Amino acid sequence: MANTLLLDVKQVSRSFGGLKAVSDVSIQIYQGELIGLIGPNGAGKTTLFNLLTGVYEPSEGQILFKQESIGGLKPYKITQKGAARTFQNIRLFGNLSVLDNVKIAYHQRSKHSIFASIFRLPSHFKGEQEMTEQGMELLKIFRLDHKKDELAKNLPYGEQRRLEIARALATRPKLLLLDEPAAGMNPQETQELMQLIRWIRKEFDLTILLIEHDMSLVMNVCDRIYVLDQGQLIAQGTPAEIQLNPRVIEAYLGQEV
Ligand SMILES: Nc1ncnc2c1ncn2[C@@H]1O[C@H](COP(=O)(O)OP(=O)(O)OP(=O)(O)O)[C@@H](O)[C@H]1O
């Protein structure tokens, strides 16, 4: 299992004006791995996520997902191909219910026809019912089922973060990209989130790439870690190797590793 290359980022760069936010970065992620992406503020982590999910097009280099080039494809195309993400700044539909937030994600990937929806054909209702059932299953996993009718914006912060992950999972990804999933959580919530991430990885047969500033989370859950600094990849290795890497320590000097 660990030998199938799922994501192959080949010498990818992205410039904004004169600034190389991501510079000649190569990353290989194998199926089933849980990989951390760390680096000081402004290192280029979110830009790399944006390149992987079609928000930006690479200026140079190639991104292969399941051996297919995805660099520059529209975000919804990349979602359909099996890569889903969460955002550093939560992006839920605040005025929709918790359940509808998840159901919308099913719509994104479902092939069930707009024609059937408009004319309210039986297949439309069957599709709706299925989405409700599957959505509730996901909400149960994330312990949000009892809040299904609440507006997303009224959930406490930690629950909004969990709902974002549930919504990403509803698109049935192979690759899940999590941008600071523990941001703003207290230590207990972070601990629970760690266990949940480990569990969904197994249960949904996921490969996960995770940006996170909480080093205890990164060091505890990740198989391997990539470190960016000023757009460049400065280190990669196991958590133990990364913690001892002089270049990483230098990049974080003055910050807690
Ligand atoms: N759309 C853009 N236009 C211009 N500059 C950008 C844009 N997006 C990112 N940058 C710049 O690229 C660099 C990398 O930013 P990025 O947000 O990817 O870093 P990061 O590692 O995610 O940082 P943080 O940990 O603070 O979120 C920064 O200098 C940022 O200002």
Give the SSE string. Answer: EEEHEEHEHHHHEHEHEEHH
CATH fold name of the largest domain, please? Rossmann fold
CATH class of the largest domain: Alpha Beta
- The amount of beta strand, in percent, is 15-25%
Number of helices: 10
| Reported CATH architecture of the largest domain | 3-Layer(aba) Sandwich
Q: Give the number of DSSP strands.
A: 10
Biggest β-sheet: count, sense, barrel?
A: 6 strands, mixed
Ligands: adenosine-5'-triphosphate
What level of helicity do the residues show? 25-40%
Shape: globular
Walk me through the structure.
- The structure is a single chain.
- With 257 residues, the chain is an alpha/beta fold.
- The chain folds into 2 domains: 159 residues, P-loop containing nucleotide triphosphate hydrolases (Rossmann fold); 66 residues, no CATH class.
- 40% of the residues lie in helices and 24% in strands.
- It contains 10 helices and 10 strands.
- Strands 6-7-8-3-9-10 form a 6-stranded mixed beta sheet, with helices on both faces. A 4-stranded antiparallel beta sheet has the order 2-1-4-5, with helices on one face.
- Helix 3 crosses helix 5 and helix 5 packs across helix 6.
- The longest helix has 20 residues.
- It is globular.
- The two termini are 31 Å apart.
- The mean pLDDT is 89.
- The protein binds adenosine-5'-triphosphate.
- Adenosine-5'-triphosphate binds next to strand 2 and helix 1.
- It comes from Tepidibacillus fermentans.
- One of its GO terms (cellular component) is plasma membrane.
